[in-house]
Amino acid sequence: MRNTTLCHIERDGKYLMLHRIKKKNDLNQNKWVGIGGKFEDKESPEQCNAREVFEETGLTLKSADYRGIVTFVSDKWETEYMHLFVSKSFEGEIKECDEGVLRWIDKEELLTLPLWIGDKIFLKLINNDKQPFFSLRLEYVGEELISAILDGKELNLDVVL
Hints:
The structure is a single chain. 19% of the residues lie in helices and 45% in strands. It has helices spanning 45-57, 107-110, 117-126, 157-160, and strands spanning 2-11, 14-19, 32-33, 35-38, 60-74, 80-91, 101-106, 134-141, 144-150, 153-154. Strands 1, 2, 3, 4, 5, 6, 7, 8, 9 and 10 form a ten-stranded mixed beta sheet that branches. It is globular and about 40 Å long. The protein has one domain: Nucleoside Triphosphate Pyrophosphohydrolase. With 161 residues, it is α+β, with helices and mostly antiparallel strands.
């Protein structure tokens, strides 16, 4: 089992997204994802989030809201607990990322890009201020989302997607 962070950095109705096209054997190959990565030993979620954002973008977070935890279960990959953050407060200049291409993507356009299906669920949740913190379990067979459980309740995938 691994722990990771994912941060959606927001500016002017857009998120800074990473198009994962540079690494070989990448489980996110060709997908658009937020900014983040694996915990290092002894890191808290907040420390990992800040470090990963800086390493991948060159930006320093001034603050970030801890919005939820996503449990990814897969028949192909190790189970992952992803700690999800949103930040509107940062400084610095964006640098080139060795894992993919960074782009500011309009929130409305984002859902039309190649994403994991489950990402569409948590993107809707982080854009809903009425749901300040959530626990989301996503189960995949290959790239097919077969189950989504939000705060202990099964979601009807035909309705949420």
